[in-house]
Amino acid sequence: MSYQSFEFLLFSAGILLLYYIVGRKGQKWVLLLANLVFYALAGTEYLPFLLVTLLASYGAGRWMGKIYEEADAELASCQTPAEKKQIKANAKARAKKVMLLALLISVGLLAVCKYTGFILQNVNILLAWLGFEQIGLFKMILPLGISYYTFMAVGYVLDIYWKRYGAEKNFVLYAVFLSYFPHIVQGPIDRYNKFKPQMAEGVKLSYKNITFGAQLALWGFFKKMVIADRLAPFVSNIFSQYDNYTGIIFVIAVVFYAFQLYADFSGCVDIVSGISQMFGIKLAQNFNHPFFAKNIPDFWRRWHMSLMEWFKDYIFYPVSTSNLVKKVRKRFRDKEQKKREELFASCFPALIVWIITGIWHGAAWKYVAWGLYNALLIILGNIFADFNKNAVQKLKIDEENFSWRLWQMLRTFALCCVGRIFSRADDLAAAFGIFKNMFSGLGMKYVAGGQLYRYGMGKMDFLVALTAMGILWAVDMLQEKMPLRETIAKQNLVFRWVLIYGCLFAVIIFGVYGPGYDASSFIYGQF
């Protein structure tokens, strides 16, 4: 059941009606039932994987919670600081074993399902090179949304282990969180301590939640069906047949892909966030107008924010405070090497984060290359930070000047587009082939004389796509300056309904429709 399908809208409307009819006490049960039905419709064979992760993370949380409660009871009767320290250490050690067991189950399940084929393929390459017999390949089942609900479960387990909040004792509440149908397929990656308070006591019907949620979902449909799905044929044609082209057509395709990916992913997030807001539950923010970013770190703070924040909290900080990093930093503990210490402390964890980020996006070397590319940009940015700052000062550049900010945004967008070639190409060899063909000639024959309209998008499609992309840019610009939905809500009734009907009819008239839609039709649903 795809998020942009009529069946999903009908399903959500039915659940929403039942959700408010049963009242606050029964709402969590309605959501749990809805989650199970939604996931079962995607494939009943996926349910055992979700159930194992659910039980492992919930059970580990309860177990660690009990260990800490027992330790607190012992601490109350302790007399000396040494005894208290020992009790805390023992509790931490016991909880760590439970935490590691839960991570082994949850992450192990993700690794086996998602990376077994990739690992065996590379093992066979090595075996063939050594002259040994190859291993028989087999295809593992890849449960829907496993990359997302696994990270939410891991985050919950680590938060309990680090005592950021207490373990949840109500199984239904935790089950609703982990299996919540709006965010289970492609995020956002929510945190339990922020999700629970919104639905623990039930939700009162709110006109604002219904109207604002519907508006956000409608805007998501516009981005997905008018922009992303219209650009998709052109992008797919150029990337899949890259050997036939050279030059500037790749620039057009890469820019279109950047907008396609953004409209596709943020459109889906808007749809599910809008639906969720109608249930009175606000999902984590996932986008903050990344095309206005001034540098690469700023871009990734604005793009897929819940994932980047997850990596910051559960990978970057633990790595940066690990014993390995501490030992290396000790070697630079003098004034002459202070800068090297700071660079290592920031660059090494970033490298680890981006290698894992690449692997998380897909089991292929092209994603590893994409992750390393972004890590390289961030590391180079750290290395040359002082040089760049001094250069700006010496050249007397006004950093608040529009032309300078525009240059920063265009530079960042271009660098991100280069990285997108790695992730969008069929494989790593194809990515390098695209780079080679891109600089093999200007390639004007592929775009001149109406030739540009022969790759999956006609002249009218180009006009609609460019107009819609302009609207997207204008809306993002307004949202940078003001709370747009709240501002629109203050306008007169005629103006508001003109906007709403305009967006609705744009989706109906200019939306791209086709048979065979399913959840995998969203690009990030495949990650």
How is this structure best described in words?
- With 527 residues, this protein is mainly alpha-helical.
- It is built from 20 helices and no strands.
- It has helices spanning 6-21, 24-42, 47-76, 81-130, 146-161, 171-179, 192-199, 207-240, 248-278, 296-302, 305-320, 323-330, 338-361, 365-383, 385-394, 402-424, 428-438, 459-481, 484-489, 493-510.
- Residues 515-520 have low confidence and may be disordered.
Give me a quick take on this structure.
The protein is mainly α.
Given helix and strand content, the structural type is mainly alpha
- What is the average of the pLDDT values? 89
Task: Provide a count of the helices.
Answer: 20
Oligomer: single chain
Shape: globular
Strand content: under 5%
Order of helices and strands: HHHHHHHHHHHHHHHHHHHH
Helix content: over 70%
How far do the termini sit from each other?
Answer: 17 Å
Q: What is the CA-based Rg, rounded?
A: 25 Å
Could you describe the largest sheet, including whether it forms a barrel?
none
Low-confidence spans: 515-520
Number of strands: 0
